[in-house]
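Summary for the funding panel

The consortium committed to producing paired sequence-structure records for every protein in the target list. Below we show the first two records in order, beginning with the earlier of the two.
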Amino acid sequence: MKLTYAPNEHSLLRTLFLFVLIFSLTSCASDKDDVMEEDPEMAVEDPAEPDNPETPSEDPQAGCDDVSKYIFNEKDGLVKVEFENALFIKEEWKQEASEQNFSGEGYMVWTGDENLGNPGVGATSFKIKINNPGTYQFLWKSAVTIGSNGTEHNDTWLRFDDADDFYGKKGESIVYPKGRNKTPNPEGATKDGWFKIYRSGNDLGFKWQARTFDNNAHDIFVEFKEPGVYTMEISARSKGHAIDAFVLFTEAFGKNNAMDAETFSEITCN
């Protein structure tokens, strides 16, 4: 006798349930793989990360760790610079902070030999970017740190060799440094485009003053006809002359505003 198998209702239900379960597990696994593949594209960029990592900081000295590359930027007719912000190769230039009424981290004082007729010793320079061409008056804030006579230990050499003009002026009188093929020249030390720049008076502490021409004080002016980067040079002359800061300013900006300005020029690098 031949036997025929006839599945009952419960067997059919179990088979259908297993089929649905297997299909569901397979579908879930497939969906999970798809999500994993899409994750990298779905990642949200960290908003703290800059779009361009090489964009410079707003800090004016960011990246300017080489003082020899400093450029001091004129703005609205003013350049104001801490004198210690330069590369002083000669060790006779000392940064000190024992005097009163200085700004910044200190001031520089020449402690070496006198160079009364020999400019260029202990020379350093400041790069200045002029954005608004014109005629600028020059002043520096200096002090006498040796003795009690305001006519000694009171001067340093100064030169603007690539400016369009560099001269001393008192009223209608104008004088030029020797070595620039211009006359008249001042009484007193001058050579190779350098002026002796002195301060006077027996108030020996730091004050804003810069003059040339012995016994006939002329103020100092520099002319820049075009925007650009110019070089201001200084070199040692009198032992004990200390310099804290300097300014260049237009007549429109004003002398008092220049001396009183609390903000110094922005520093960028070449």
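The next record, for a separate protein in the list, is shown here:
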Amino acid sequence: MANVPKRVQDRLRDGLKKFLPIVANARSRDIGEADTVIIVTDVLSAVFGYDKYSEITSEYAIRGTYCDLAIKLDGALQTLIEVKAIGIELKDSHVKQAVDYAANQGVDWVVLTNGVIWRVYKVTFAKPIDHELVVEFDFLSMSPKTQAHIDLLYLCCKEGWSKSVLGEYQSYRQALSRFFVAAVLVSDPVLEVVRRELRRVTPDVRVELDEIRSVMTAEVFKREVFEGDKALEAKKRISKAAGKALKLPSKGNGKAPLEEVNAQEVSPSSEVPGS
């Protein structure tokens, strides 16, 4: 996981201690959307580090109405935030309008929250416009004593945003999706290794790459990982990367790949996007 600066860790821990009882109390009272927006604004400021007066705004209209909140950094729109009442169960349809507007404005990220459940989506600029769930957490399940929770919340912080850790996390999760892994496993370089091993085990039998690929796609793996838009996108990216030299991290650079937070520790419903 990304290295979270100590001052940010301290703010996250202090913010959780302060707002966990506030959010829990708000849920028990089943407050309405307007009051939920107030709490979400305070969480964005006190926990995630955005300036309440210069970086959090509600000025962006969406087809005659207004998106509940938005984040602006250095005057540029970065994220649209759709807020529902704390007792409302979040649905994907709640965020569609904000996603469409974000795409029209060239904004990459949209947040959907009811103050308890937080979902962060990456907008996909395609036809039609789509969105991918990158981060989901239950605020009330976060603990200031659990480092994994602090690391997860850092993805949504202003400091993490400035270092693009959310984008890195998305790339990490995407690389581990079943579609990408499947596409890699049936790529020519991997199939060459499989064919070599088959020849070693059965030296009198010769098979072609397409024959191995056919068996793997039809019988070894589930068909669904090779079908649909996500599978096609994975195949395109694997093909595009073919022939590129693998960049290995230099020794002693102190950098490690962004690790995935234990899904069960964060939210029972969390899934790898695209899986």
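Regarding this second record: The chain is about 45% helix and 15% strand. The two ends are 21 Å apart (CA to CA).
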